[in-house]
Amino acid sequence: MSAPGLTAHRLGPASQVPVGEGRGFSVEGRQIAVFRLRDSSLRALDATCPHAGGPLADGQLDARKVVCPLHMRAYSFADGSCPEGPGVAVHPVREEAGELVVEL
């Protein structure tokens, strides 16, 4: 069930995002990066680094953040913040019946 004001979008099989990696998706004309953390939990952020346009889905991640592969800026999974500059939006994401579902 979606939160008020948000629309759920099915992205396909959850197996598309292996543990410890991210993948990019186009949703309603926006680029969204979905990550599966080492504990198998899911996180989703806007996929483009506002600093230099880097693909966040290709970044290195840990339990708290993803690091842009271009200039090493880190973005928090909790709130999208970046200590060095503008942050990115965070989106609710879940696995439902074997599929990834993100809310925008």
UniProtKB/TrEMBL annotation:
Specify the Rieske domain's residue ranges.
9-102
Keyword Iron-sulfur present in the record's keywords: the answer is yes
- Which keywords are on file for this protein? 2Fe-2S, Iron, Iron-sulfur, Metal-binding
Region of interest called Disordered, as start-end residue ranges on this chain: 1-22
Q: Name one Pfam family in it.
A: Rieske
* SUPFAM superfamilies membership: ISP domain (SSF50022)
The UniProt entry's coiled-coil ranges are none
Name of this protein: Rieske domain-containing protein
What is the native source organism of this protein? Answer: Pseudonocardia xishanensis
